[in-house]
Design goal:
heterodimer, A: alpha/beta, seven-stranded mixed β-sheet, 4 helices, 20% strand, B: alpha+beta, Immunoglobulin-like, four-stranded mixed β-sheet, four-stranded antiparallel β-sheet
Chain lengths: 177, 234
């Protein structure tokens, strides 16, 4: 006579434990590849700002630089800019240099928008997309943090309060170095 | 049809079977976790052990006996002096190494330039600014044989450096022997903050040997205008 071996609670517990072990060991999906520019010297460039002055990145060696690539058609960029203005007001005197890098095809849109928002940090215009490829720009907004030695230390894509909290903490770390 | 009668013995057997099955699965799961843990932690532990400074060698058969007390006291007195001497020599070695690295870097840079731009094809273009009252340079664009080869934006600091007498090597490239045309466009602010854009052209003959050209921006006081000239260095 066959023993009545119905699956009961021991089997259920064993299956649950096995599944938990498999899931814990499973590789997590990589949502975004590690930025290729991270850890490398920041590519030097010179661009004209909305104010009409030319700005060169290498002249800010020794300072912490935040590059923010943005465009007027990008919603999160528009949300981020007032917050960046606050960062500039807070940390500007501590050695932070904030540069907005606009990549619109028509620079006039960027000039108009920057004046409407009323940002006080330099907004640089790159309509010919000469600088964007140097930083492997895939999407906007992209925030790049460069340390005092001119090395790209942190890169963030997109914008939301959680990301902002992260890069503000990183910014403070670089300013403290 | 055989009816299945609830039987104490068969019930016990089924419980034992279930418990055995569960125990086997639990053993397999625990073994897998232990193996994974050892695979991760093991190498880390080995690496940490290797980083530990080597402890003093254990006393062997020929190890010397403990020194007498006075010799030990003398040894203790000498100890503070020995480390500082050692640090000093290490510091000097480090400084010497740094100097060697800088020299090597310089030699590599010169070699790289010679390889990329050999003298027989090299063309270098320099920019200089004399006085600069009538023209504030903003950018300079270079075209060689109708092809744009360089475009340089000048910051306030760089323009100031030019006004103080600095000469900038704006472009270095390679050209074949023969006739070529260089066109330079100067953009900036003229008198009364007016936008100013001028061009200058030079047809030159590239021979064997490096060619050096200078874009001179100077003030012509008589005409109250800037002058843009391209000169060849002999």
């Amino acid at each position: 006579m066959k023993a009545d071996v119905r699956p009961g609670w021991p089997a259920a517990v064993a299956i649950a434990l096995t599944l938990a072990a498999l899931l814990a060991g499973a590789p997590r999906p990589v949502l975004a590849a590690e930025p290729s520019i991270r850890g490398k010297p920041a590519a030097d460039f010179a661009l004209k700002a909305v104010s009409g002055q030319n700005v060169r990145l290498s002249e800010h060696l020794g300072e912490v630089v935040l590059l923010n690539f943005w465009a007027t058609w990008c919603g999160p960029c528009r949300l981020q800019m007032p917050r960046l203005e606050q960062l500039h007001a807070t940390y500007g005197s501590a050695g932070l240099v904030l540069l907005g890098m606009n990549v619109d095809d028509d620079a006039a849109d960027a000039v108009e928008f920057a004046r409407t928002i009323g940002v006080s940090y330099p907004v640089l215009l790159d309509p010919r997309k000469a600088v964007a490829p140097l930083y492997d720009l895939d999407a906007v907004p992209m925030t790049v943090l460069i340390d005092r030695a001119g090395v790209v230390r942190f890169v963030h894509y997109d914008y939301d309060p959680a990301i902002e909290k992260l890069y503000v903490a990183e910014l403070r770390q670089l300013l403290d170095e | 049809m055989n009816a299945v009668r609830p039987d104490a013995l068969s019930a016990t057997r089924s419980r034992v079977a279930r418990a055995s099955w569960f125990a086997a699965w639990l053993a397999v799961w625990l073994a897998a976790w232990l193996a994974a843990w050892l695979a991760i932690v093991g190498p880390i532990g080995v690496a940490l052990a290797q980083e530990q400074p080597a402890e003093s060698a254990p006393a062997g058969a020929n190890a010397p006996t403990a020194p007498p007390a006075d010799a030990a006291a003398a040894a203790v007195a000498d100890q503070p002096a020995a480390p500082s001497q050692e640090f000093k020599s290490i510091d000097q070695d480090v400084q010497a190494l740094k100097k060697d690295v800088v020299e090597l870097n310089k030699d590599l840079f010169v070699l790289e330039e010679e390889l990329l731009f050999p003298a027989n094809t090299q063309v270098a273009v320099f920019v200089s600014l004399d006085v600069g009252e009538f023209f504030a340079v903003d950018s300079v664009t270079l075209k060689v044989d109708d092809k744009e080869v360089a475009n340089y934006l000048y910051t306030a600091r760089e323009a100031e450096a030019l006004m103080r007498g600095g000469v900038q090597r704006m472009y270095v490239g390679n050209l074949k022997v023969g006739k070529h045309e260089l066109v330079a466009f100067f953009t900036g602010k003229g008198t009364h903050e007016r936008d100013y854009k001028r061009g200058a052209t030079l047809n030159f003959d590239k021979g064997i040997g490096a060619k050096y050209l200078e874009l001179q921006i100077s003030d012509r006081a008589r005409k109250q205008q800037p002058e843009f000239v391209i000169k060849e260095w002999e």
